[in-house]
Every structure is written in C-alpha cells, then in structure tokens.
Amino acid sequence: MVVKPDWLRVKAPQWQRVGSVKEILRDLNLNTVCEEASCPNIGECFNVGTATFLIMGPACTRACPYCDIDFEKKPQALDPSEPVRLGEAVRRLQLNHVVITSVNRDDLPDGGATQFVRCIEEVRKVSPNTTIEVLIPDLCGNWEALKIILQAEPEVLNHNTETIPRLYRKVRPQGNYQRSLELLQKTRELAPWTYTKSGIMVGLGETEAEVKTVMQDLRNVDCDILTIGQYLQPSQKHLGVKEFITPEQFKIWQTFGESLGFLQVVSTPLTRSSYHAEQVRKLMKSHPRTKS
After folding, report:
1. pLDDT for 91-133, tens place per residue?
2. Residue 254: is its pLDDT beyond 60?
C-alpha cells in the first residue's frame, strides 16, 4: 500500500461557509462534482463560495474505475427546471465564474448538449457578467452536438484527457484518446474565440515521458489551458494509486507546459480540473479573443 505523503494534507475548512453553500445547493436541489466525485478541495472552494455544478445526474452511463460518481443507478429523464435552478444558484452565490459539468449521458441522442445550452442561457439571463466554463464529456464523437454547445458561446470549453493512451483501456475503458483530442481540435475550428482546456491525472503508472507526450499532443490541437493533478483513490473498489508524485515533479511539468506555449498550466498535487478555474478571467484580459 502506498502511503499518502504530507503534501497531500488538506487544510480544514471553515464549516460555517461550507454549510451556507451546501444549504443553497440543497435548497435548489442541485448536484456538484465537488461532492459527487469526493473532491479533496471541496472545503477550500466552498469557503470562497464556488462550486462546479454537475448536471443531468447524479447517475452516469459510464463506469470509469477511477471516478466516484454513481453509475449503478438508471439515468433519469432530463429535468427542465434544472437550468433555472442552476441560474438561481449562480445568482445567490454571486459567482464571477461558473463551471458547469455533467455525467456522461450516452443514452441521449445529443449527449446532453441541449441541456448545457439551457444552463448557459439561464446563467446569462440572471448574471450576464459571469464567465462560463463547460466541462463536457466526449459526446461519443457527435460533433453536431458539440456545435450546439459552442453556439451558446461559453468562454471556456473544457474536456479532460484524463490519462495517457497506454492506460486508457484500464482507466477510461469507454473513452477514446484520439476522440478526446479531436473534440478539442474541433472546438478550435468551430469556435476559435473560445478558450480550450484539458486535464490529466497522474500517479496511475504513467512515465514522465508519457505525460510530456500527452502535453505535446494537447498543444498540437492548440489547447490553451492544462491542469495536472495527483490521482487519489476514492474507495477500495476504485483503481489504486501507483505512485504519489512529488511537488517538484509537478513544477517540472508546469515549466515544460509553459515552454510548449500553453497560456496557463496549473500543476500541483491537489489540482483538479475546476480548481481555481476563476483565474481564467485574468487570462482573458491578458490574451483577449473576440468573435470575428
């Protein structure tokens, strides 16, 4: 058994603030990936009043062995009130930047693209100055569905690569590495004004060279933002951690990513895809893009 090192200790949150965020989420009957996926940063993010909303769930149609989101329940019909409730949560929490993600909904013809659009529209209606990031599944390669999402003009389109190609069959058996790269490439072609983002987990048995190859592959499709974080085993039934990567190695990957031309690289043991996502607002000011 690999022992968790000291650098993965998380500071205890101020539960009064955490409780107020949870109260709003419960009142509006909303799911967050923070809770459903057992994110280690939940205390920090809830303390500053941020959350990553998980729509169309909580049940997922895929069974990735690293993920703590439930896949055993049958997916339910989409709730037409969900986008309205999400918009209200953004208003109550006074969010400057919101991340909207979802479970995989391979049972839906458009993979849930229409529900993403409705959520974007509701946020814009009640909080027009809030920047919007959507963290989407691969849509089974349905690029018409991707086009539907992009037509709603989210500021950031995020899709996680998750791991290296060699480990895909083990880590992400229903995913496809090349399809994930193609999604990011298609986003750049369809909406060049949109910032693209991806993330990977480490500590599952990959080599440093393999991680660098994924980073280069992401730059080859002009991905703007990269997150790299330590994989943590949610429970005994999930994939085990092969190695705890040192903060020094994360810094090496950050420096390498910056040399490749990423606009932003967030690489620390506790980094998650949506961790400090609001920092993209600064990036947008320093590297502005407008729809031509």
Report:
1. 988 888 899 999 999 999 999 999 999 999 999 999 999 999 9
2. yes
Residues 6 or more apart whose CB falls under 8 angstroms from that of 214 comprise 161, 164, 165, 200
Q: Is residue 292 part of a domain?
A: no
Query: For the purposes of burial, counting CB atoms within 10 Å of the CB of 178, is it exposed (0-12), middle (13-18) or buried (19 or more)?
Result: exposed
- 290 domain residue, yes or no: no
- Read off φ and ψ for residue 78, nearest 5 degrees: -65, 140
Query: In whole angstroms, how far apart are CA 124 and each of 14, 53, 87, 96?
Result: 30, 15, 8, 12
| pTM of the entire predicted model | 0.92
Query: Angle formed by the axes of helices 247-260 and 208-220, to 10°?
Result: 30
237 in a structural domain: yes
Instruction: For residues 163 and 140, give the distance between their C-alpha atoms in angstroms, rounded to a whole number.
Output: 18
Q: Kindly state the tokens that stand for 52.
A: 């990553």
CATH number (domain holding residue 278): 3.20.20.70
Longest Cα–Cα distance in the chain = 54
Q: How far is CA 193 from CA 8, 87, 145, 289, in A?
A: 36, 24, 18, 5
Residue 215 identity: M
Q: Which domain holds residue 214?
A: 7-284
Q: Are 245 and 172 in contact (CB under 8 A)?
A: no
The total number of structural domains in the chain stands at 1
For every residue of 223-273, DSSP letters joined together read --EEEEEE----STTSPPP--PPPHHHHHHHHHHHHHHT-SEEEE-TT--T
Contact 75, 55 (CB under 8 A): no
User: Is residue 183 a part of any domain in this protein?
Assistant: yes
Its sign, for the CA torsion 128, 131, 135, 139, is positive
